[in-house]
Automatic annotation (TrEMBL):
Keywords: DNA-binding. The keyword Glycoprotein does not apply. GO terms for cellular component: cytosol. It comes from Virgibacillus pantothenticus. InterPro entries: Cro/C1-type_HTH, Cupin_2, Lambda_DNA-bd_dom_sf, RmlC-like_jellyroll, RmlC_Cupin_sf, TransReg_Diox_bact_type. It comes from the Bacteria. GO terms for molecular function: DNA binding; DNA-binding transcription factor activity. This is DNA-binding protein. It holds the Pfam family HTH_19.
Length: 182
């Protein structure tokens, strides 16, 4: 199953479980019903911005769509987590590092942004985020304040404030995003 198909299936399953129509999600996100339907059927891929809007509408963290659905409750080691095939398909890799832990208190993700990726609008949601740059130069915007993070720089932010990340460079960026929704 491709990442696009996996994400679409998870959106569809969650939407139906919560008894929410495509029309309601469309109204809450500004995304067309046609796009949402194609996304659920794996016929199109989503940007990180559209996934953030959908996750807010459905009341989950964006990493929900990237996690595997298993019932692990013990410690988990995740090896060789970077699959660069998704980088060209989606312009980003968003890899859940929780190892499938059931109901984690926080969600660790590795994010790789392709050059120029994630131009868009600020976004807010419940919780907090901790970003730690591994490689590249990450531009962040929090509450209309813009700053640039270099490798080994980090920021801790209140996710309820409008924020966004950008890659304004010509090289990929790798960073950790550890988030909570409570």
């Amino acid at each position: 199953m491709t990442q696009t198909t996996h994400i679409g299936k998870k959106i569809n399953e969650l939407r139906k479980r919560k008894k929410i129509t495509l029309k309601i999600i469309s109204q809450q996100t500004g995304l067309s019903i046609s796009f949402l339907s194609q996304l659920e059927h794996g016929k199109t891929s989503a940007t990180l911005e559209s996934l953030k809007k959908i996750s807010e509408s459905l009341g989950v963290n964006p990493s929900y769509f990237f996690s595997e659905t298993n019932e692990k409750t013990r410690s988990a080691i995740t090896r060789n987590i970077v699959d660069t095939t998704n980088l060209t398909e989606n312009r980003f890799i968003y890899k859940d590092l929780s190892g499938g832990m059931k109901d984690p208190a926080f969600i660790p993700n590795l994010i790789i942004l392709d050059p120029g990726a994630n131009r868009g609008n600020n976004f807010s949601h419940k919780g907090q985020e901790f970003l730690y740059v591994l490689e590249g130069t990450l531009t962040i915007e929090v509450d209309d304040y813009v700053d640039v993070l270099q490798p080994y720089d980090c920021v801790f932010l209140d996710s309820s404030k409008p924020h966004y990340w950008y890659n304004k460079t010509d090289k990929p960026i790798k960073f950790l995003c550890i988030s909570s929704t409570d």
